[in-house]
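FAQ: What does a multi-protein file look like?

Like this. Sequence, then tokens, then the next protein.
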Amino acid sequence: MAGSKPKQNGPARDTRAAIIEAAVAILGETGPAGLTASALTRAVGISKATLFHHFRTVDEIPLVALEHLALQLKAFSAPPKKPSQPAIEALGEATDRLVERQRAFLNAYFVFFAKALFDEALREKLAACGEQSRAMIAELVRTNLEGAKTARDVDDFVNLIAIMLDGLALHLLIAKDKRPLLRAWSLFAKIIPTKKTPRRRQKT
């Protein structure tokens, strides 16, 4: 929570980490307008002099906080799926769980997305942070999708799925009833051509 005060018994590096964590929490709870020097010093329990010892300006913090956010969201990996469940459908379920468990972090992610529209450095950082999830999706595409025959096919599918996942997460964050969204994702998963698993021959 943005109003909680992390312990400051550790070295200076811990103070810097606490500032970054507080920044992500504040962005996720109140948006960019809430990310001020006063809010950060209250959340971490430090003075403004200490804050500006670690960061030259408050505007510098989101660039560093974005990397921290990407590490926190590492839990978003290819999820285990039921034998009969399409891999793409399993991704939708993982996104739903992520929204339930890491709502403030996802809020912060979309705050970064909005800020990146007007900040080239943040756009570059956001793109770099997305490479890990794109690599995971690319492996899923190569393994599971029938139409991914060339590198360009894989890239096209990765872009499509990444766009759809961002849209799903954003709508899950604001929806009162998530069931229609998950049904729509299930329909999307069925439309994507997946490789058929060879049937095992029954022993006679």
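And here is the next protein:
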Amino acid sequence: MSIANTGFKSSARSWHAIGRLGPWITLFIAVGFSLWMPLPPERTLEIDERHARIKSVFERVPLRMGEWVGEESPLTPSAVELLRPNAALSRSYRRLGLPANYKFSLIHCSDFRDMGGHYPPVCYPAHGWSLEHENRVGSGDLLAFDPEARAAEADESGAAAVSLAIGDGFGPAEMAIYRFSRAGRDLQSVRMTVVSAFILPDGRWSRSLGQIRDAAGRRRLAAEGVAQVQIAMAGWPGLDAIDEPIAALLGSIPTSVWNSLGLRERSTEADSNE
């Protein structure tokens, strides 16, 4: 056995060991995040009604949405305990006629602090995945990231960003693109891409956990909670292979869901200003 193979197997064993510790690492980070965040104010009846409305709307989202067919993929008990979600959609979606699967989750937490453990640069490395960057080299070649996907101001993890349209009325969603890898059981590298963003109660999109903390300093927003969208897919597809299908999937989500989270269609806003 070559020295290289010995080193690779040792590395793989290390990642599997980290994977076993993942839930504990995630819990530690989430607890630290909750201490770092300011305490939210007591909720009012109006806010409780908003949370109930979000939960009700989430529960009515069909598995079949146009050309997308979903299958339930419930959150694990440990994830539920960590996130304490007010409402959650966790499904695997595929497009009719195509083999690719997209792991879709949309989670609303009543308490901003509970979202820290669900942040991709925190959650996935805690479960054995390595967060890659554009200047990293793997398998002997430069990773194929899309330069145009870079944001002028990336989030604190250095993730690339993409602006996606959600249907015709909502305008762009600013989302971060994360690339992960880890050693598989056959010692071959396994790759995954995660597209993610937070939705603040006032309808703003945010890629940054720092912005979530800043928003939590505003007592009203902190009480209303925060939502997060995540779409995970196999491999490291290019920007074109991310943009169109993810925008199409998000655009298939019922308008009532986005409205419940504070997003408003541009036409509605324009009419109200006239």
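Q: Is there any per-entry metadata?
A: Some entries carry free-text notes. For the entry above: The chain has nine helices and twelve strands.
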